[in-house]
Design goal:
This protein is of the alpha+beta class and 392 residues long. The chain has helices at residues 3-8, 19-40, 197-200, 234-240, 293-305, 349-352; strands at 42-46, 60-65, 117-121, 150-157, 162-166, 169-172, 175-176, 184-191, 209-214, 225-233, 246-251, 277-281, 288-290, 312-314, 319-321, 324-326, 328-330, 335-339, 355-356, 360-370, 389-390.
Length: 392
Amino acid sequence: MSVAEILLKPASTPKKKSAFREWFDSVLFAVVAATLIRWLFFSAFVIPTPSMENSLLVGDYLFVSRLHYGTTTPITPLQVPLTHQTIWGTSIPSYLDWIRLPQYRLPGFTDVKNGDVVVFYLPVEHPDMYQKYSRVLPDLHPHPTDLRSNYIKRCVGIPGDKLEVRLRQVYMNGQAQALPPRMQNEYFVSVKTAVNEENVFHKNGIVDYAQFTETFGDSIASNDETGYVVKTTSALAEKLKSYDFVKRVQPVFMEKGLKEPYLFPTSDAIDWNKDNYGPIAVPKAGMTVPLTEVNIALYGDIIRNFDGNENVVVEKERITIGGKQITSYTFKQDYYFMMGDNRHDSADSRYWGFVPKDHIVGKAVFVWMSIDPNPTSFIKKIRWDRIFRRIN
């Protein structure tokens, strides 16, 4: 065939893709794009428990920015895209841990600050820790770091802080910290007569309450007070005082020196509780602590499991690394102390300890949808006033 014939020959028509091939390519592109966006920019989460009420409610759907603190590279690459721990609707694991990669954090444009609402991987799902904390969190299962359960709490202690809770008030480095505006606490509401719970509690957004009788430790029935223990904000507690059938509204808290079981750390040397906790130093990279009995209880888990050490044995009064006893320790990464805004109904750092920096996922930015799991009517299923609400 001559050159002229080759040039004059009509171009062959490209073979048209089948409908299935076009569908497959579209789905593949969507999955790859969604996976990259979810890993690099932001993720969507839903609030499953009341531990952050009344700041965040059960049924709130959030966008969580991974850019703020810098996203982390995957540790477990062999997993089904857009899943977490299990395949949708089943108990089948969605990953294989045959390959483990080192983790790196890409640059972010800020660090975690006191008061930030943070999503993080639950550290007590480490294989060496999940049985120890099963009484506090009964549904624990061991998972690789990047596939542990996502938790959301407020950061109250950053690396290097000295934290203390006195009668529910958080102090940082000796200074009282501003309370979250919608933080929820527990109150005893003493009443003179029967209460219409729908009109008094439900209409004020109080969903966690229980009838209670205050006996004052004596056998005189006339001294007893009938009322309710409610979990609500300080503003709503003040509003309850205005009802004519309410005798008094009193905060409920545990007295200093009353030791609470299952609190972190497990040690007979301390007598802390949820309302009177610490003082406690939040570990910072480069910070050195002496390994006293209390410090071993506080920091033994992170020395063994999260700081990159091998052959660590933690005992009540000593720690050995590679068979050699150490009397002090210098931390290799930063840690954080997290608490829920529902201070009497939150399994947080007071119960299971510090969050390592490599477990930080991102900053909760805003609520994009909110669905009431127990609406009084179908019309009230969506909480319209919470849509696109910023998280403070």
